[in-house]
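Need residues for this backbone.
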């Protein structure tokens, strides 16, 4: 679990915790090498074999833009900040660096530049290379390994309308658009065995004959804070944590997004621009994480995933 700690003085520092059972957590060692790295709040983590890659940021500088940092180390720690040129993640073309992912024999960071959807790739997490190229009207939110390359998901705008978009990407082949259903305006947010996003409702997309086909809408998309959705797989079931308006919701599907049922959260979860929530799964356990700004809470449920503790 990654995040940060705010000191009484208001200063922040990066934080990393590990657990073998999602019950007992221990802090892990971090070794920042830059001024902003020592103040970063970590936001994403990816594991491959016995290696760990983290991503964090801290706003600063004359314009107050996020100073992004990547970190690498063994699962046992410590994890060290990677020294990198400022314009690898920053500079005049910077927009954001979002999620870290692993697969296809490499680590990937998904994000965006002024030129559109982009990724950063590395075989070992020690040095990333920027790989832009999806187009100026594109936006990348997540990625999943596919064969020897990746599927990158997000949105593309045309005629002032933002719609779900998918690209295939590999080091040698570059970027290529993939056909995807678009019932309405929206965006894909999560990539896994299926894709999750918003397009005239929350939906899952499944691959059918070389095309990503949208399933039925589920959940409620309300006004206010823009909707988001993330996913996890546990015990062969697909879980979707949705954020819409001022509330979070949890849904489960046993048929890869063909049908959905609601799952009770540990308590009614309010939502604002300052609230962070995530879902993760394993063979027999579902874990929910939430931070409303006053402290983080971790909840877990073992099959049949009806009660959290």
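Answer:
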């Amino acid at each position: 679990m990654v995040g940060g700690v705010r000191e009484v003085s208001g200063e922040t520092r990066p934080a990393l915790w590990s657990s073998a059972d999602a019950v007992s957590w221990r802090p892990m060692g971090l070794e920042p090498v830059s001024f902003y790295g020592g103040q970063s709040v970590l936001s994403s983590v990816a594991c491959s074999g016995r290696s760990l890659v983290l991503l964090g940021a801290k706003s600063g500088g004359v314009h107050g833009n996020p100073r992004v940092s990547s970190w690498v180390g063994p699962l046992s720690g410590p994890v060290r900040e990677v020294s990198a040129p400022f314009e690898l993640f920053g500079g005049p073309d910077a927009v954001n660096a979002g999620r870290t992912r692993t697969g296809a024999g490499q680590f990937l960071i998904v994000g965006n530049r002024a030129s559109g959807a982009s990724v950063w790739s590395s075989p070992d997490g020690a040095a990333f290379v920027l790989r832009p190229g999806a187009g100026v009207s594109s936006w990348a939110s997540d990625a999943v390994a596919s064969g020897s390359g990746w599927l990158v998901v997000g949105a593309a705008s045309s005629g002032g309308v933002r719609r779900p978009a998918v690209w295939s990407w590999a080091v040698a082949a570059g970027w290529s658009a993939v056909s995807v259903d678009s019932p309405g305006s929206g965006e894909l947010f999560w990539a896994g065995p299926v894709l999750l996003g918003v397009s005239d409702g929350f939906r899952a997309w499944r691959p059918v004959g070389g095309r990503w086909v949208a399933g039925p809408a589920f959940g409620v998309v309300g006004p206010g804070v823009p909707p988001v959705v993330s996913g996890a797989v546990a015990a062969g079931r697909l879980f979707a944590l949705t954020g819409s308006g001022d509330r979070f919701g949890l849904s489960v599907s046993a048929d890869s997004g063909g049908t959905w049922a609601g799952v009770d959260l540990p308590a009614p979860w309010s939502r604002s621009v300052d609230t962070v929530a995530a879902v993760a799964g394993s063979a027999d356990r579902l874990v929910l994480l939430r931070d409303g700004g006053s402290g983080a809470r971790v909840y877990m449920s073992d099959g049949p995933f009806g009660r959290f503790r």
